[in-house]
Amino acid sequence: MANITKEDVLDRLRSVTAPNGGDIVSAGIVSDIFVTGGKVMFSITVPADQANGMEPLRRAAEVAVKGIPGVESAMVVLTAEKKAPAVGGPSPQPAASRSPAGRPAAAPGGGRAGIPGVGAIIAVASGKGGVGKSTTAVNLALALKANGLRVGILDADIYGPSLPRLLALKEKPQVVSGRILRPLDAYGVKAMSIGLLVEEETPMIWRGPMVISALTQMLREVEWGELDILVVDMPPGTGDAQLTMAQQVPLAGAVIVSTPQDLALIDARKGLNMFRRVDVPVLGIVENMSYFVCPHCGGRTDIFAHGGARHEAARLDVPFLGEIPLDLGIRLSSDAGKPVVVADPEGAHAAIYRKIATEVWNGVEAARSGGRRPPRIVVE
Ligand code: ADP
C-alpha cells in the first residue's frame, strides 16, 4: 500500500481555492492532518457566518484528497470560527475587570482572541500519559475555587477524557440556545468534557479530526459566564495534536505535571519546549507521586528519586510549584468522583493543592502584568 504522507495531502490541497482567494493551505485554514493507512482526516476552518455556503469547498477538498493514489477515504469537516469581539469592543463588562486582581484580561501569546468573560485560560499538560495530569488538573481547579476564584475546567483530553469520572458527571450538557451548551456544575466549578460530547465507543481515529472543532466548540460555544480562570486538561504528550491545540487556545500559561522518574522528566522538558514554541509562559512544574506516606505507620518513603522535578525546574529556570505524594486517598477519592480537595478540604493534601493553586494564580497575574517574562528554557 502506498505510504501517504501529510505532505502529499497538503500538496494536493494547494489546488483548492480558499474563500478569500489563494489556496486553502497558504490561507492557513487547514488543520493538522491525520493519516491512518488509507484514511485521511482534517478540518477546514471557515468564518461562522459563511459556514452554510462552504459545503462546495469541503467537497472540493475531499475530492482532491481522494484523488491521491492510495487514499481510500477522506473525512473533511468544516470548523466554524466565530469572530470574538475585538478587545475593548462592545462586550458587556468582561469578568476580568471584576476579577480579584482588578486587571483587564490581556491578549495572551500570539494574539489569539480570548473568551469574553473568562479572565485567564491555563493548560495542564504532561509529556506522557499516566503521570496524574487529570488528577492534578481537577484538584487544582477545585483548589483555585477554594481560594475564592470563579473557576471552570475543560477536559480537552481527547485520548482519555477523565473528567466525567473524576467529577462524577453523568448528565448530558443542555443546549442553552442555538449551539451554545451549558457547562455542568461540579462542586461549584463549571465543567465541560469532550467525554460528555463524544460517545465513549467512538473510535479514536475518528476523534482525531474532531480535535480542533470540538476544542473550539468547547471553548467558544459553552456558556462559561464570568470566570477568573479556566483550567484546560490537555491531552498527554507533545505531538502535533497537542501543539495545534496549544496554538488554538488563548493560553495565559501552562502547568506541567511530571513524576520524579528521569524518563518522565525528560518528557516534561518536551512539554516545556512545546509551550515555548507557541509563546505560552510556563507557570511551573508540579511533581506528582513525589513520595509515599505509609498509611499504617506514617513513615515517608521516596519511592522514586524524589526531588527530581524541583532540581530540574531550577535547572530549566522554571518555577517549581510543589510536590504531591503518591497516596491511596488521592486515588480513591478521584475514583469515587469526589476529588480530595473537596472530599477532605481540611486535610494535608487539600492544603498542598491550595498552595499550588496560589502559586499558579500568582504566576498568571505576574505574567499578565508583564511583571515576569516567560521563563527562558535551555534546550540541550
Ligand atoms: P493522566 O491524566 O496523566 O493520564 P491520571 O490523573 O488519570 O493521569 O492518573 C492516573 C492514575 O494515577 C489514576 O488512577 C489516578 O487516580 C492515579 N493518581 C494520580 N495522581 C495520584 C497520586 N498523587 N496518588 C495516588 N494516585 C494517583
Briefly note the structural class of the backbone: alpha/beta
Helical residue percent? Answer: 25-40%
Strand content: 15-25%
The CATH architecture of the largest domain would be: 3-Layer(aba) Sandwich
Output the radius of gyration: 21 Å
| Rounded average pLDDT | 81
Main beta-sheet strand count, sense and barrel state: 9 strands, mixed
N-to-C span:
38 Å
Sequence of secondary-structure elements: HEEHEEHEHEEEEHHHEHEHEEHEHHH
Task: State the low-pLDDT regions, or none.
Answer: 82-111, 204-208, 372-380
Bound molecules: adenosine-5'-diphosphate
CATH superfamily of the largest domain: P-loop containing nucleotide triphosphate hydrolases
* Count of individual beta strands: 14
Question: Any chance you could write out the topology, listing elements then pairs?
Answer:
Layout: H1 6-13, E1 34-36, E2 39-47, H2 55-66, E3 73-81, E4 118-126, H3 133-146, E5 151-155, H4 163-166, E6 175-177, E7 180-181, E8 184-186, E9 189-193, H5 194-197, H6 204-207, H7 210-220, E10 227-233, H8 240-248, E11 253-258, H9 262-277, E12 282-293, E13 300-301, H10 308-316, E14 320-326, H11 328-335, H12 340-343, H13 348-368
Parallel strand pairs: 2-3, 4-10, 4-11, 5-9, 5-10, 11-12, 12-14
Antiparallel strand pairs: 1-2, 6-7, 8-9, 12-13
Helix pairs in contact: 3-13, 7-8
The structure holds adenosine-5'-diphosphate.
The site of adenosine-5'-diphosphate has 18 residues, from helix 3, strand 12, strand 14 and helix 11.
